[in-house]
Structure formats: C-alpha cells, structure tokens
Design a protein that fits this description.
binds fe (ii) ion; disordered C terminus; Purple acid phosphatase; binds 2-acetamido-2-deoxy-beta-D-glucopyranose; alpha+beta; eight-stranded mixed β-sheet
C-alpha cells in the first residue's frame, strides 16, 4: 500500500517535472525571461560516505597490484595521456606497456614514482607516466604492474583538433564518495561520454582527520578508477582540495591533490598545475583555479590573458571554461562567492565570446541565461546583469553527491539571470556535433535512473553568428528540430 502511494506520488512529480521542463523550453523559444525553479528534490540515500570495506572501494587482487588508476590528457592537443596509479607496498615498476591491440604491447613508456606524508599517514607509491606520440582517434590498450599483479586497461584518443570534430564531454562536480556519488558515476558511465570535465571537490577526504584523510583519498582513487582508468578526467581543484590543517601541521595547500592528480599545465605554458588549458577535438578548454590569486598581474591573470589570445575559433570553435566557484549562482549556498573572480575575468569572457562556463561548489544544478554585468562600475552603470548575446551560459553542476548533501535553499524570487535551477544530484553532458551545434543535457539521478531533465541546443558563439551562419548555408546548416536553443 505504502509502496503504491509512493509510486503514484513519484509518477505525479515526474509528470509535474515534465510540465516544468516543457515550460522552460517554451519560454526559451519565445525569448521569455521567466526562470524556472524546479521543486523536485529527492535525496535517494543519506549523505554518508560508503564504508571502506564496501566493494565500491575494492582493492585489486595480487601482491602490490596497481590501484587508483586514472588518466588525463598529457599534452595540448590530445596526442598524449598521463597515466597515474598507486602501488601500496613497494615501488615496483613505473613502466607502461601499450599498443593498439589487446595483449600485444608494442611500446613502453617509463614514468616516475613519488610518495608523500600527510600527518602520520604515508602514501603508497604514486606513479605517473607520460605516454605520448599517440595517433588520433585510436584505441590503445595498456598494462601496468608486473606478473600476476599486472592490470590491463584501454582508452581512446580524441579525433584530431578540427572545427567539425564531434565529441561528447561529461561534466561532474563535487563528487565525494557516497552512494549518491556512485549513482552519479554509474549514470555517467551508462552514457557515451568520452572525457570528463571535473569542476573541483574530488574526494571530500578533508572532512576526515589525521590518517583518515589519506585513506579516503585512496578509497576515492579506487572509486573513480572504473571510469578514470579508461577515459581522461580533466581536473580542476576546489576548496576541498586546499586541506590547510594546521592542527595536524599540514599547511601546504593542495598537497594531496597535486601529488595524486597531475595536469598537463606545462603544455599550455602555465606555471602552475592548478590552471592550464587543453584542446580536444573541436574544444579549447580553459581550467581556472578559484582558490589561487587571480587579480591583475598575478601569474594566473597573466596566463589567462595570454591563453585567451591563443584561442583560434577557426580550429577550435568551442571555448569552454571550468572553475570551481560559480559566477552566477542564486542558491543561498555560496551566494556571491564568485563575485571577486567575476569582476576580474567576466569582461574577457564576453570579449572572447566564451560558449559556456562550468562550475561546481554549490550542491545543486543551475543554468543561467546569456547575461553580463560588465557595465556596472562601482560609481556608475547598470547595477544589474543584463541580457548579453556575447556572454557565456553559466552552468553549476556541483551536484555529484558528496557527504555534505544538497543545497536546497534557492533565493526567492529567482533572479532574472537564472534560467533553471533544481536541487537534485546528477551530472551533465555536452555533445558537440560540429562547429555550430552542441546538445547539452543535465541528467538528474532519479530513483536510480538517469533522467535527462534540462536539455537544449547550444549554438556556438563564434560560428553561430549571422554572418558566419550565412557563409555556412552552403553546408546546409539548419536549426535542430524539436529542441529549444540558447539564442
Ligand atoms: C618516499 O620518497 C622519498 C623521496 O621523495 C624517499 O626519500 C623515500 O625513501 C620514499 N619512501 C620510501 C618508504 O621509500
Ligand atoms: C566608471 O564610471 C565613471 C563615471 O561614469 C567613468 O568616468 C569611468 O571611466 C568608469 N570606469 C570604468 C573602468 O569603466
Ligand atoms: C551541425 O549539427 C546540427 C545538429 O546535428 C545540424 O542540424 C547541422 O546541419 C550541422 N551543421 C553542419 C554544418 O554540419
Ligand atoms: Fe566546493
């Protein structure tokens, strides 16, 4: 009886949600400005971390077997990967065997091993190996470890950097290691996402103390391996990576993160692994650090100024920015925390016509209209964000499912810049079709199922404009039927 009632309620709320979604799409088509606050809230499991002895954190069999295997892009254009893993008991080999057919490893690459301490915790042996000179659009198999303990994985390199290269990114943030986190990860893996853009706050190990901090970094590494060993995760750091813990004499910011999650920052001439850029397929992806200095003349500011000049929309039409703290957020949680970075970088995002900015931090989902607030200057100008065709869409996906739970209190009334918001767990995907069109989805975790909830066609900010669109007419460019668009 109870079950039946629950099901009826669920069906009702789903129907209600469908109505909401249709309404949002219609308001887009009509150029309407009414934002939508979805009342759908469901926390499927309590927000507690999965116990360490759960199979989600299973230690691979065999003496000193490699664990916590993960890969990330290793160069600027996608012909290299950095493979990282941990051996728990002894250093072992830092070698990677790889090739284009299974069990036939024609090539090897030699990495390096390191380790660190955190209070009295001693990390395992952390291996990092750059595998470069790869062919584009090719499946590679790789093997690490030795003898009975060796393990094999594979990954697919991206297509050559090309304006019409199609590619599907997943966007995940604030993941943590709860059963909700597992649900998010599994939903992402059921889709066809090829690379994860991770918007910060990885393990939430800093919620623990003393030895447990390192132990929860290790469990998280084993947790995400199911995806991260097979496709690159593009990392950015959040506040939970800072780990400033003077009471246990740990005062080096980002220490665990930097040891464990290398980035290809040198390839984009960055001086710091916390901010960098890569190009992949038809996208130029810029990773920023919300918790590093960014005001005028600081290294991050200088680097971003120079990197934006290098963006070539004829080669990489899609300009995507990742950061942890959102610039446009209407949740009570972390409200206005992104203002400092907004005041420094927003005018560049408008000038360079960034397509989309992904952020995390707020444990809910929110999408903005194309707005800017760059005319405001503390002595004059528009005081409120205004509609701006050159502005990016700002999307907050801090809803991976960590132990802190959902941010359920949105500001009321919904500000004009906010297009859609909902406090549920989930992840997003951005499916780039060609230089002018990408299809975006936010997928809510809904009773163990992945439900596409907020969907639209994103028109490219460079190739979507009228002049270039007319030029493309001969390529038979037409609007995608059925879905709403952002312009
Ligand atoms: C950990 O690495 C340091 C160098 O970074 C090295 O001196 C030390 O021997 C290593 N620890 C162990 C147990 O091998
Ligand atoms: C701010 O507004 C004042 C007054 O209109 C103007 O003189 C000044 O140039 C503006 N500053 C900037 C940086 O736009
Ligand atoms: C780009 O993709 C969209 C959506 O699939 C399609 O409608 C359009 O015709 C494509 N444009 C070109 C130039 O291929
Ligand atoms: Fe955060």
């Amino acid at each position: 009886m109870f079950r039946v009632m629950v099901e009826v309620t669920m069906r009702k709320s789903r129907l209600l949600h469908l109505v909401f979604t249709v309404f949002v799409l219609l308001s887009f088509v009509n150029g309407g400005r009414a934002g939508m606050t979805s009342k759908f809230i469901r926390s499927e499991w309590p927000s507690i971390d999965i116990p360490l002895d759960n199979e989600a954190f299973a230690v691979p069999k065999g003496h000193n077997a490699p664990q916590q295997v993960h890969i990330t892009q290793g160069d600027y254009d996608g012909k290299a990967v950095i493979i990282s893993w941990v051996t728990p008991h002894e250093p072992g080999l830092s070698k990677v065997w790889y090739g284009t057919s299974q069990n036939k490893y024609d090539f090897t690459a030699e990495g390096k091993v390191t380790n660190y301490t955190f209070h009295k915790y001693k990390s395992g042996y952390i291996h990092q190996c750059l595998v470069d000179g790869l062919e584009y659009d090719t499946k590679y198999y790789y093997k690490i470890g030795s003898g009975d303990s060796s393990r094999e994985f594979w990954f697919q390199t991206p297509p050559k950097v090309d304006p019409d290269a199609s590619y599907k990114f997943g966007i995940i943030g604030d993941l943590g290691q709860t059963f909700n986190s597992l649900s998010t990860l599994e939903h992402y893996m059921h889709g066809e996402g090829q690379t994860v853009l991770f918007v910060g706050d990885l393990s939430y190990a800093d919620r623990y103390q003393f030895n447990d901090v390192g132990i929860r970094w290790d469990s998280w590494g084993r947790f995400v391996e199911r995806s991260a060993a097979y496709q690159p995760w593009i990392w950015s750091a959040g506040n939970h990576e800072i780990e400033f813990m003077p009471y246990m004499e740990e005062v080096i910011p980002f220490k665990s993160y930097l040891y464990r999650y290398p980035t290809p920052y040198l390839a984009s001439k960055s001086s710091n692994p916390l901010w960098y850029a890569i190009r992949r397929a038809s996208a130029h992806i810029i990773v920023l650090s919300s918790y590093s200095p960014f005001v005028k003349y600081t290294p991050q500011w200088v680097w971003l100024r120079d990197e934006l000049k290098k963006v070539d929309r004829e080669k990489t039409p899609w300009l995507i920015v990742l950061m942890h703290v959102p610039m446009y957020n209407s949740n009570e949680a972390h409200f206005m925390e992104g203002e400092s970075m907004r005041s420094v970088f927003e005018s560049w995002f408008i000038h360079y016509k960034v397509d989309v900015v992904f952020a995390g931090h707020v444990h809910a989902y929110e999408r903005s209209y194309r707005v800017s607030n760059i005319n405001y200057n503390i002595s004059s100008g528009d005081r409120y964000p205004v509609s701006d065709k050159s502005a990016p869409v700002y999307i907050t996906v801090g809803d991976g499912g960590n132990q802190e739970g959902l941010a359920g209190r949105f500001r009321d009334p919904q500000p004009d810049y906010s297009a859609f918001r909902e406090a549920s767990y989930g992840h997003s995907t951005l499916e780039i079709k060609n230089r002018s069109h990408a299809i975006y989805h936010w997928n809510r975790n809904d009773d163990g199922k992945k439900v596409p909830t907020d969907s639209f066609v994103l028109h490219n900010q460079y190739w979507g404009n009228n002049l270039r669109r007319r030029k493309l007419k001969k390529h038979n460019l037409r609007g995608a039927g059925g879905l709403a668009t952002t312009r």
